[in-house]
Amino acid sequence: MKFLDEDEELNPIVSAVNLVDVFLVIIAALLIALAQNPLNVFSSDDVTVVKNAGKPNMEVIVKKGKEIKQYKSTGNIGSGEGMRAGVAYKMADGSFVYVPEGDEAQAQSDAKQVEK
C-alpha cells in the first residue's frame, strides 16, 4: 500500500486527472455553443442570416428546414439579370394597373383589360 502513502504533489497522475477535467469542461462548452448556433443542421427552424450588411461583400445565408443556401453580393447596386417588362401604377382605389412596354395600342388595350 505504498501508493496510499505517497504525497499528492509527487504523483504525476493527479495533474493528468486535472487536465482531463479541464478538457471535459471545454468540450461541454463547445457542444453548448454548437447547439445554440442558429444555423445548426439538427434544428428545423427557418433562419436568415445577413453577414456584412450594406457592404460590397455582403452575404445572405438562408436556412429552410435542413437546406442551407448562401447568396453573395456582387457589390453592384441595382444590377441583375433580366429586362424591364413594363410599368405598374397604383390607382386611387388601391388597385394596380400593369402597362407592358412595347406597342402603344397593345399596351393601352392590355391596361384597359387589367383595369376591368
Task: Please provide a written account of the structure.
With 116 residues, the chain is of the alpha+beta class. The chain has helices at 2-5, 12-35, 104-115; strands at 47-51, 59-64, 67-72, 86-90, 96-100. The chain has a three-stranded antiparallel sheet, with no helix packed on it. The model has no long low-confidence stretch (mean pLDDT 78).
> What is the averaged pLDDT score?
78
List the secondary-structure elements in sequence, H or E.
HHEEEEEH
| C-alpha end-to-end distance | 101 Å
Helix content: 25-40%
Helical run tally: 3
Rg from alpha-carbon coordinates: 32 Å
Shape: rod-shaped
Poorly predicted runs are none
Strand percentage: 15-25%
Which class do the helix and strand fractions yield? Answer: alpha+beta
Report the major sheet.
3 strands, antiparallel
Strands in their spatial order, largest beta sheet = 1-2-3
Total number of beta strands: 5
TL;DR?
The chain has three helices and five strands.
Descriptive keywords:
DUF2149 domain-containing protein; 116 residues; membrane; transmembrane; three-stranded antiparallel β-sheet; two-stranded antiparallel sheet; alpha+beta; 23% strand; transmembrane helix
What's the layout of helices and strands?
Layout: H1 2-5, H2 12-35, E1 47-51, E2 59-64, E3 67-72, E4 86-90, E5 96-100, H3 104-115
Antiparallel strand pairs: 1-2, 2-3, 4-5
